[in-house]
Amino acid sequence: MHTITRLSADDFPGSVPGLAGLLSDTVADGSSLGFVTPFDRQAAAAWWHARQSAVADGSLCVWAAHGPGGVAGTVSLTLEYKPNGRHRAEVVKLMVHRDARGQGLGRALLSTAEQAAARAGATLLLLDTETGSTAENLYQASGWTRYGIVPEYAADPAGTLRDGSFYYKQLA
Predict the structure, then answer these.
(1) Is residue 95 part of a domain?
(2) Do the beta carbons of residue 56 and residue 7 sit within 8 Å?
(3) Mean pLDDT, residues 48-57 taken together
(4) Is 135 inside any structural domain?
(5) Taking the chain, what is the end-to-end CA distance rounded to the nearest angstrom?
(6) Residue 1 — very low, low, confident or very high, per pLDDT cuts 50/70/90?
(7) At 38, which CATH number?
(8) How many domains does the chain have?
(9) How many whole angstroms separate alpha carbon 69 and alpha carbon 133?
């Protein structure tokens, strides 16, 4: 059983070690999250620490799923504050530890972000993922619509360029 909680600005620094472990594990497992190997826990922690001010000012919402082994998953939501885009938000860095996959945690994290976006007044959500990844199955099964593929959009952890799929979901 996992408990999903939104990390406050006060909670966030203490959660960075667990988030860093999750991020480094996910990259080591080959997920394309914007990082290439070598990528260790120290680099992952530095990346998470750099998000502290965005968490503090509310432009980035981060949830962590805790289980018996610590942080088993996370999802983040970036809120748009430009006047012409306040109706949209972006789901970013949805990760589930390889030991916790296949239990519905990814779906629960995605749903958490979607519900929070709706409460924040967003009516349009966006995200991107590696084309052909298992994440695509989750997004399609959760009612997201792919609106395009960009060839060789980003490198995977090994440095190989991969296509990127872009999705949106309109919230009621």
Answers:
(1) yes
(2) no
(3) 98
(4) no
(5) 29
(6) confident
(7) 3.40.630.30
(8) 1
(9) 25
Length of the chain: 172
Q: Are 70 and 23 in contact (CB under 8 A)?
A: no
3-state per-residue secondary structure call for the chain: CCEEEECCCCCHHHHHHHHHHHHHHHHHCCCCCCCCCCCCHHHHHHHHHCCHHHHHHCCEEEEEEEECCEEEEEEEEEECCCHHHCCEEEEEEEEECHHHCCCCHHHHHHHHHHHHHHHCCCCEEEEEEECCCHHHHHHHHCCCEEEEEEEEEEECCCCCEEEEEEEEEECC
pTM beyond cutoff 0.85: yes
CA-derived radius of gyration, the chain: 15
Two structure tokens written together for 7: 């990390």
State the residue range of the domain holding 91. Answer: 3-123
Residue 52, pLDDT above cutoff 90:
yes
Structure tokens at 129: 């993922």
DSSP bridge partners of 96: 73
Give the whole-angstrom CA distance, residue 61 versus residue 136. 22
Which residue is associated with the tokens 């990390």? 7
